[in-house]
Design a protein that fits this description.
Layout: E1 3-8, H1 12-24, E2 28-34, H2 37-51, E3 57-61, H3 69-78, E4 87-91, H4 96-104, E5 109-112, H5 117-130
Parallel strand pairs: 1-2, 1-3, 3-4, 4-5
Length: about 130
Amino acid sequence: MKKNILLVDDDYIFNFLTRTVIVKMGFADDIKVALNGQEALNLISEHQEKSGSLPDFIFLDLNMPRMDGRQCLKELKQDSRLEPIPVIIYSTSKVDEDVEEVMALGAADYIKKPSYYHEILHVVGQAIERQ
């Protein structure tokens, strides 16, 4: 069954590549993109008002302007409607404290942001399959 996915990242190229991988793998019917945490929360709210649906997965970058991934994750997990959505944090950071913090905040998974298309294919596919 295909899913609705929200990608939240300020990197346009990574969004394009990740979206391409998800579509190529046949994992998603609908992929929305937000460039920061605040835009993601607004997009979720607007989409729910129009269609009544929520994303099945959220891929959330840790470091973004305006509202970073940590703050967005906190907001998502404090809202009873959004709390059940698996949030997969991805970042270039491999600092143990970052991983521990977002997992304690309720992230479903933490993956190191891949650099190459074939790595994106592998890492994103594994993250989705684990959920």
